[in-house]
């Protein structure tokens, strides 16, 4: 192990991407100090959101990043970047970077520097002791959608096939679990069908619980390039930035979206807008669905959603009469107590109107984190690597064969979801937790309880870029990790596009790439031999290709990282022996009969052009359930509904990285704010800039009031980036995806 450690620490100072960069002959910048003179550029996909913008990182002669600019030639961002992308290098130089391993001294209670050997020995010995005393499944990990795909795959494989663990999840549970489950049940595989060109090719774009102006600004720029004079519809309780730019804003009651969508289906069926040929040839369950929504009459839906009957008819007419309609959703749908059925109600609208597989159409989930899609395919948490089913013996045997492992090493069931892992910690079943590049002490719903639970662990390991996160502050061991720009690997964006992240800077101190840390843990654990082939991210990419063969996500046709970069990213599927030039529709069969992977052009492809879905019968499913009451309705004591969401395009989640940038801090409020309607503010004697107290049944927090009619009466809105908000949220979960319902809880507001 020590030789592996020596090699990795030595390799930290080795070359970065100098063999891959373009070197212009002369930039004409003779007056600038040499260390600041650009000598070359490297391309790297942005590591914040799921859009997958390509950035050109400018390097000096030593191969060190000086600054960056958006890539003008990339098919995703077309030369644009949002403020976070422009500032992507700044968080790397933050003074609170984790630079050495830190171990908590039991006597003093303080975190103290330790060398890597001691840190790894302690990690392995504590986790093995826990397994010995409490069972193999008394350890767990919580990971992220922010590391590269190869790291996710190695972590999941190491934990389950090397360390004997079972319970693991990632913060993808907080954003995309719903879409994953909804697609899998409806289409037979977790397969977002769209390509970004669909933003530009729609006649009507219907955004449900999505605010791309702030959350996905470059995707919104793609909407702005649409030359078809589209209707832009926003379904959202709040008059968001996107709603203000829309042709129709449907301001429905919070969490009434499932009823609303069933009401729309009712109207579309009633007006004869069903594409009967498509439904008959490519779906199952339509008749039962039509019978179910018959009860969702306009009057009933209007009463339950606060949407006027005339608005329901207007939107139904838009969907019925426009040739190309695309439906887009994100966290307003996914973070709900009945999220999966709501996402599937959107899918049902696309199915019944035949809006799938054609340009400008689709039931399209916009992903959150830069590599949530990688996590969904290769995280090895709920699905087996490559989208295989853990519970199916043939799948386990197949994956074991591809990895050269004994099939007995592969668990025959899925582990706990995020909330179940925390509950298991709470009741003493899980004693050791490894948290990688996420910050549950800030981001988990009902945060105070989450912090209490983390305090019950025997041993908490936090692997992160920073020592200052709320979760790192609770750790027994902190492992210093490299960040975006300090390592290589791939990300998969919202439209299924692989992009490459390049090492353009050296991690500070003794910080190592997550990949290297996982390899060292494998050695310390004594299972390193099982992962010899997993020698580098590039080598793991080849393993993942093998795992994808025959699956809907088949990317065996992507040779290597250089091929991805040369093409400006490549969407899956991209099968071996494809012909990009002729758009051959080569197909491949998988273990699961019925999987087929249509393939055409290299740079822009959408799924289901042939109407074949991934269920064994090739058909999509209409899935539905009756709406359920909101988990925490308002009452006299807590008369306001608290809405939450992104507050600025300059902030990212808990701000661990974006808060490090002085530029980004200037572009958004630096304190927790709360939006309140002018009538409510007047009634309570509140004014903009005043500090107010927001009280829920779980906590009271202070925020600065912003009086604005963007929220409706008796509703409040708080941005998610500050730690206060999640002290208020109510811990309800979607029963299918187990995604937390962050978007609505009951609160009161008063002067602080
Ligand atoms: Fe990065 Fe997303 Fe901004 Fe693009 S839109 S620059 S991927 S944060």
Quick description:
This protein has 752 residues and is of the alpha/beta class.
Could you explain how this protein is built, in words?
- By secondary structure, this protein is an alpha/beta fold.
- Helices cover 31% and strands 16% of the residues.
- The protein contains 27 helices and 26 strands.
- Helix 4 packs across helix 23 (537-548).
- Mean pLDDT is 92; it is low at 18-27 and 579-600.
- Bound molecules: iron/sulfur cluster.
Mean pLDDT, to the nearest integer, reads 92
Radius of gyration: 25 Å
Shape: globular
Number of helices: 27
- Which hetero compounds are present in the coordinates? iron/sulfur cluster
CATH architecture of the largest domain: 3-Layer(aba) Sandwich
What labels would you give this structure?
752 residues, alpha/beta, N-terminal domain of TfIIb, Rossmann fold, Dimethylsulfoxide Reductase, domain 2, 5 domains, seven-stranded mixed sheet, six-stranded mixed β-barrel, 27 helices, 26 strands, 31% helix, globular, binds iron/sulfur cluster
Topology:
Layout: H1 2-11, E1 40-45, E2 54-59, E3 65-70, H2 83-86, E4 102-104, E5 111-113, H3 116-134, E6 139-143, H4 149-162, E7 167-170, H5 177-187, H6 197-201, E8 204-208, H7 212-215, H8 217-224, E9 231-235, H9 241-245, E10 248-250, H10 257-270, H11 276-282, E11 283-284, H12 286-293, H13 298-305, H14 309-321, E12 325-329, H15 331-334, H16 339-352, E13 362-365, H17 372-378, H18 393-403, H19 418-426, E14 432-436, H20 440-443, H21 447-454, E15 459-464, E16 477-480, E17 489-492, E18 497-501, H22 514-525, H23 537-548, H24 561-567, E19 570-571, E20 620-621, E21 640-645, H25 662-666, E22 673-676, H26 678-684, E23 691-695, E24 700-707, E25 715-719, H27 725-728, E26 745-751
Parallel strand pairs: 6-7, 6-14, 8-9, 8-12, 9-10, 11-20, 12-13, 14-15, 15-16, 21-25, 22-24
Antiparallel strand pairs: 1-2, 2-3, 4-5, 4-16, 17-18, 18-19, 21-26, 22-25, 23-24, 23-26
Residues 46, 48-49, 51-53, 77, 81-82, 84-85, 217-218 line the site of iron/sulfur cluster.
